[in-house]
Amino acid sequence: MQPLIITAALTGAEVTCEQQPALPLTPEEIGVAAAECAQAGASIVHVHGRLADGTPTQDKEVYRAIIAEVQKRCDVIVQVSTGGAVGMTPQERLAPVTLKPEMATLSMGSVNFGGDVFVNHPADMEVFAREIRSHGVKAELEIFDSGMLHTAKRWLAKGLLAAPAHFDFVLGVPGAMPGTPQALMYLLGELPAGATWTVAGIGAAQLPLAVQAIVLGGHVRVGFEDNVYYRKGELASSNAQLVARIARIAAELDRPVATPSQARQLLGIV
């Protein structure tokens, strides 16, 4: 079985310091959190930009500072978000890709997102896909619902997306596909040949879906963007605490944790 790639989603665009006091916001705080997660076993860090007051931002210079703070502390794959926050323009959301990070997310459709709607117009998605590819960035295709996976498969067949694709199944968002073992198994049955995949369970779905992914040969995303708790009623002390638990469970199941170099090889990042 392939080594396990652990992604740490450090901050997100929605979580507040009131919900999670240990949330990293500044580039320096994100860099420190990334180094802690790398030490715990993460080979990818998924980053969102924030201003000092916590407001989400896709400002390229904020992302430049984040990447610099991460890279001076550890060797991990930095994956920028092109999701940004609900209500941002496509131009805003795409800005960090021009920095040529190793990876960037690409959401494959629109979805109800709690009380909001996360809009991804097909024409904008094509622009995102083209720009990500033109800058030599590896796309992670974000799948919130089954229709998005079928869209990705059509686009792969048309050559709009680079193959082999890497998918992130984000399960448990209110309004999208549930964070259940059955939902994950359905999506796995629809994967295109040669694809790699990660699962990001939201809230209480994070741990059980992570264990399922470890057993099935997939990869795992954890972190404050998706879940701020270590167990019911107990806030996690850090992103690294959530990463360390996955690494520990993987070790018990005899699944080695990927180094950043191994993750690059598995994902075709050169």
Plain-language structure description:
There is one protein chain. By secondary structure, the chain is of the alpha/beta class. The protein has a single domain, classed as Aldolase class I (TIM Barrel, Alpha-Beta Barrel), CATH 3.20.20.70. Helix content is 37%, strand content 20%. The protein contains 9 helices and 14 strands. It has an 8-stranded parallel barrel, surrounded by 8 helices. Strand 7 and strand 8 form a beta hairpin. Helix 1 (27-40) packs parallel to helix 8 (239-252).
Summarize the structure.
This protein is of the alpha/beta class and 270 residues long. It has nine helices and 14 strands.
Query: Widest sheet: strand order?
Result: 1-2-5-6-9-10-11-12
Shape: globular
Low-confidence stretches: none
Number of strands: 14
Decide which structural class fits the backbone: alpha/beta
Q: Helix amount, in percent? A: 25-40%
**What's the rounded overall pLDDT mean?**
96
| Helix-strand pattern | EHEEEHEHEEEHEHEHEHEEEHH
**CATH class designation:** Alpha Beta
The CATH superfamily is known as Aldolase class I
What would you report as the Rg, rounded to the nearest angstrom? 17 Å
Beta content: 15-25%
Please give the count of helices.
Answer: 9
CATH architecture: Alpha-Beta Barrel
